[in-house]
Amino acid sequence: MQASKQHIKISPIKSNSILLSILWTVLLGALLFFNVHETQKTPLQHAEIQAKSLISSAISFRSWATHFGGVYVRPSEKYPANPYLKLPERDITTTKDEKLTLINPAYMMRQVFQDFYGKDGINGHMTSLKLLNPNNKPDTWERKSLIAFERGSKYESTVEQTPDGGKIFRYMQPLYIEEKCLKCHAEQNYKVGDVRGGISTFIDLRKGEEIAAGTIKSLVWTYGLVWLIGLMGIFISFRRSIMLEAEREQKINLLKVSENLAQEFISGMSALSNLEETLNAISTMLEKRDPYTAGHQRRVADLAEKIALKLALPREKAHGIYLASIVHDIGKIQVPAEVLNKPGKLTDLEFSLIKLHPQTGYDILKAISSPWPIPEAVLQHHERLDGTGYPQGLKGEQIIIEARIIAVADVVEAMSSHRPYRPGLGLEAALAEISKVRGTQLDSNAVDACLELFKEGYQFP
Ligand code: HEC
Ligand SMILES: [Fe+2]
User: Fold this and answer.
1) What are the percentages of helix, strand and coil residues in the chain, rounded to 5?
2) Per-residue pLDDT tens for 80-92?
3) Would the pLDDT of 129 be above 50?
4) Ligand 1 centre from 106 Cα, in Å?
């Protein structure tokens, strides 16, 4: 019961924390995904920049060489005269008898690309659809790009897989015929502005991808760490909330327990069964102090209840009369013991003290709630029909039926049993007495019922 109650109370905190954790995970996951995605694009972006700068520098060097219609150099074994250059002035001799050969721009670039590039995974290649040098022939992709250039494309790019699983970025730009190119390319029927061919570049993506992979790795670690710290924060605040909640729960429970105790006490005081216990206890308390009247109240109670039943009062009402009877003299608790137990005749003062007991009894009993007029019955048990009773001098019907019945039983029991100040007068005398005051002091129906009971053989318990 307690556990399930706690479970229900805590679950909103739990579900909030779970929701927060999910949100946090989704947020970081999305950010990581975005960052990884961006990082994965960087090798290609870098390759493109590299390719463009390679081409622009190649074009610059070419333009420089073209400006001079090629440049003369001393041929060597490694760089001999270009067999594909068909100009008559290709090979010359200086005045100092030195041999020089003309290097056309394409030849220069080819040598540079072949001998100085390639090691860093970067290289270039000059090619054309109409070749002077068959070794410059385009590969499949270059051919497609050259055709695209003739249709007006400004550049072409692609990523190719290498047989060993690597990736190569390829980028190509067209080369156009200028005035100076015609010196050597006029024979091929080119006009200024025609696409002569193109420079294509190869950038190995492996290096960039390695760098990106490193970056992604550190991103994953960083995000993972931040994610864990966030989750820990959420967990800690979850624990705190649960502890606070449990503390609150405990306080509430404590309050409830103390409230219950008070409630139990109050309801116990007024509960029917406890009422009887209370009244019994009160009755016993008086009899402990006043041994001469010990049992008086219980005997009166028994007789009064029987009289009530004889008068055909409801069982409930009769029980109320019984309960009132067992405490009807409780007010004597205020009368000093010497007076109560005094043998012989009482003084006027002592008797006036005794006469206070109905009121005192009423004052004590009115604090106890019950469905019966117990305090009133106790207050009025010494009232008499003709108004000669005490404490209020009530008459006839002003006296409640409970008190009228108790009065009869009280007189009979008191007269027939022994008292400190006189010996018992006997049942006969008692019954004679009530018959005498029937209708004047005591209720005639109650007296009749009482006489009837004794005629039937009633005996005090
Ligand atoms: C000095 C002569 C000369 C000049 C000037 C010259 N070229 Fe060439 N070009 C050649 C020769 C010779 C070849 C072929 C042999 C080689 O690979 O060197 C060639 C090759 C090429 C190629 C490679 C394709 C092929 O046919 O083998 C292209 C592209 C090219 N030239 C473009 C140009 C452009 C564009 C210009 C002007 C900006 C130009 N050339 C200026 C002599 C020249
Ligand atoms: Fe009394």
Assistant:
1) 65, 10, 25
2) 999 998 888 999 9
3) yes
4) 5
Question: Is the minimum distance from the CB of 103 to ligand 1 under 6 angstroms?
Answer: no
The minimum-distance atom of ligand 1 relative to the CA of 197 is: 29
CATH number for the domain running over 272-455: 1.10.3210.10
pLDDT one-digit tens code per residue, 290-316: 766 668 899 999 999 999 999 999 999
Contact partners, residue 242, CB within 8 Å, separation at least 6:
10, 13
CA of 325 to the centre of ligand 2 (A): 10
Residue ranges per structural domain of the chain? 272-455
The yes-or-no verdict on residue 64 having pLDDT over 90 is yes
Ligand 1 neighbour 188 (Cβ under 6 A)? no
Q: Which ligand neighbours the alpha carbon of 380 most closely? A: 2
pTM of the model: 0.55
Pocket flag, ligand 1, residue 301 (CB < 6 Å): no
Residue listed under structure tokens 């001393």: 74
Highest mean pLDDT among 37-41, 254-258, 419-423: 37-41
Instruction: Please indicate whether residue 182, judged by its CB atom, sits closer than 6 Å to ligand 1.
Output: no
CB under 8 Å to 24, separation ≥6 — which residues? 227, 230, 231, 234
